[in-house]
């Protein structure tokens, strides 16, 4: 069952519901209705401006960003949403954390609300490395609908895999 993989950890009823939508071929319609707005963020420069604007609004004190860009190799489910390993580089005995925001290339074409959600997710990691309670409350502070949107993103990714 594809939904079980994309929605690991969610209540079984929700997984069943998603799988039904998928098998009945209603996922695309469902997503189009939930997430109608598009965006124009197609380049690394545009993404930088987009991220910087959100950062200025919510996380002005987090220090300047070292890197912002789209990344074609990033796997969203496993690397962005999945269980996080700490994103610090060990340099000698000193831990150095780079403030980098990498967004999977598929978000160029994704609905606007999902780009917003993933950028909020990555911005929250500037302060909280792990997916803990403080991390998610920071996400919710920046995007009150965060949890619903993360669920929608998982549906979207599931649909992308089906469409391949
Ligand atoms: Zn994460």
Structural notes for this entry:
The protein is mainly alpha-helical and 164 residues long. It has one domain. It has 8 helices and 4 strands. It has a two-stranded parallel ribbon with strand order 1-4. A two-stranded antiparallel sheet has the order 2-3. The two termini are 17 Å apart. The mean pLDDT is 89. The structure holds zinc ion (ZN).
Bound heterogens, unique? zinc ion
What is the rounded distance between the termini? 17 Å
Q: Please outline the major beta sheet.
A: 2 strands, parallel
Overall helicity: 40-55%
Average of per-residue pLDDT values: 89
The residue ranges in which pLDDT falls below 50 over 5 or more consecutive positions are: none
- SS element count, helices: 8
Name the features.
YgjP-like metallopeptidase domain-containing protein; mainly alpha; 4 strands; 164 residues; YgjP-like_metallopeptidase; two-stranded parallel ribbon; UTP_pyrophosphatase-like; two-stranded antiparallel ribbon; binds zinc ion; 8 helices
Write a short abstract of this structure:
It is built from eight helices and four strands, in the order ααααβαβββααα. It has 164 residues and is mainly alpha-helical. It starts with a helix and ends with a helix.
């Amino acid at each position: 069952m594809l939904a079980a993989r994309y929605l690991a950890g969610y209540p079984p009823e929700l997984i069943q519901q998603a799988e039904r939508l998928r098998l009945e071929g209603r996922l695309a319609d469902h997503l189009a209705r939930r997430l109608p707005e598009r965006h124009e963020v197609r380049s690394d420069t545009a993404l930088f401006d987009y991220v910087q604007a959100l950062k200025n609004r919510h996380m002005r004190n987090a220090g300047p960003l070292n890197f912002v860009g789209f990344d074609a190799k990033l796997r969203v489910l496993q690397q962005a949403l999945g269980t996080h390993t700490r994103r610090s580089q060990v340099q000698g005995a000193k831990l150095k954390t780079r403030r980098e925001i990498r967004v999977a290339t598929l978000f160029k074409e994704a609905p606007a609300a999902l780009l917003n959600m993933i950028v909020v997710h990555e911005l929250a990691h500037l302060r909280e490395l792990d997916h803990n309670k403080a991390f998610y409350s920071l996400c919710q502070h920046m995007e009150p609908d965060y949890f619903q949107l993360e669920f929608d993103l998982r549906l979207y990714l599931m649909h992308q895999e089906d469409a391949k």
